[in-house]
Design a protein that fits this description.
The protein is α/β, with parallel strands linked by helices and 246 residues long. It is 36% helix and 26% strand. The strands form two sheets. A six-stranded mixed β-sheet has the order 6-7-8-3-9-10, sandwiched between helices. Strands 2-1-4-5 form a four-stranded antiparallel β-sheet, with helices on one face. Helix 3 packs parallel to helix 5 and helix 4 packs across helix 5 (146-160). The structure holds adenosine-5'-triphosphate (ATP). Adenosine-5'-triphosphate is lined by residues 15-16, 22, 24, 42, 44-50. Residues 15-16, 22, 24, 42, 44-50 line the site of adenosine-5'-triphosphate.
Length: 246
């Protein structure tokens, strides 16, 4: 096995056709090593979410290749792709996180159950307690705030130990104390369990907790910096990119 969990090679992603065709990613190559925490930053519209969606096998790029844990996604059928996402990828996304008819507890246990495993007794409750939701086990997503739903998704990533966790603005909807808690948990996935975390964020404070910051601009990698970086340095680089893309 390589030391790289996620490898993107020369990814192009486009939306629309003809005059309305828009190139969201324009030849992006980047690899995320096992046991590292990377932040993806860049101006609005620079392609961050598209990158995350392609890397996680939620969207297929128009060209280029994505490999997760040595499996090339391009060669997989939709069923195989679904299984790979379920077994090896954790999602901490603001949308399409959770199954609306299931309780928080059931949502956390779902990936394991779909894979035919039963979580260890108490493990689901412990994971939800770890994200501060011990008193919300039986709530359904509609009965939880956006931030709480995000934390249920986080608990699911804690319990199923996927090789890679993709997080899209995981702290965007949270107050600063809860944000720090979520970032601590993401760090623990990496430091204690050697999982790989790739996080899109606009927040320099969140990005400063990562080992590396990949900056996108106009669908290309504009900078790729290994930490530690202070939030102020990250904010300055982001401001510079925003200026350049205006
Ligand atoms: N479904 C879509 N159809 C058409 N264009 C799209 C679609 N999704 C994204 N785009 C366009 O592709 C480009 C990249 O979008 P993307 O969402 O990846 O950017 P982003 O960096 O995540 O932005 P933000 O920080 O605002 O979330 C943008 O110009 C956007 O308008």
């Amino acid at each position: 096995m390589t030391t790289q969990t996620v490898v993107l090679e020369d990814i192009r992603a486009t939306y629309g056709t003809g005059e309305r065709r828009l190139v969201a990613l324009d030849g992006v190559s980047v690899a995320f090593e096992r046991g590292t925490f990377s932040a993806v930053m860049g101006p609005s519209g620079s392609g961050k979410s598209t990158l995350l969606h392609c890397a996680a096998g939620l969207d297929r790029p128009s060209s280029g290749s994505v490999t997760i844990d040595d499996v090339s996604l391009g060669g997989l059928t939709e069923d195989q792709l679904t299984r790979l996402r379920r077994d090896r990828i954790g999602f901490v996304f603001q949308s399409f996180n959770l199954v609306s008819s299931l309780t928080a507890e059931q949502n956390v246990a779902l990936p394991a159950r779909l894979a035919g495993r039963r979580p260890a007794p108490g493990a689901v409750a412990a994971a939800l307690a770890e994200v501060g939701l011990a008193d919300r086990l039986r709530h359904r997503p509609s009965e939880l705030s956006g931030g709480e739903q995000q934390r249920v998704a986080m608990a699911r990533a804690l319990i199923s130990r996927p090789a890679v966790v993709f997080a899209d603005e995981p702290t965007g909807a949270l107050d600063s104390v809860t944000s720090r808690h979520i970032l601590d948990l993401l760090r623990r996935l990496v430091d204690e369990h050697h999982q790989t975390v790739v996080m899109v964020t606009h927040d320099p404070v969140a990005a400063a907790r990562a080992d590396r910051v990949v900056f996108l601009s106009d669908g290309r990698i504009a900078d790729d910096v290994r930490g530690p970086l202070a939030p102020e340095q990250i904010a300055a680089r982001t401001a510079h990119l925003v200026e350049k893309s205006c």
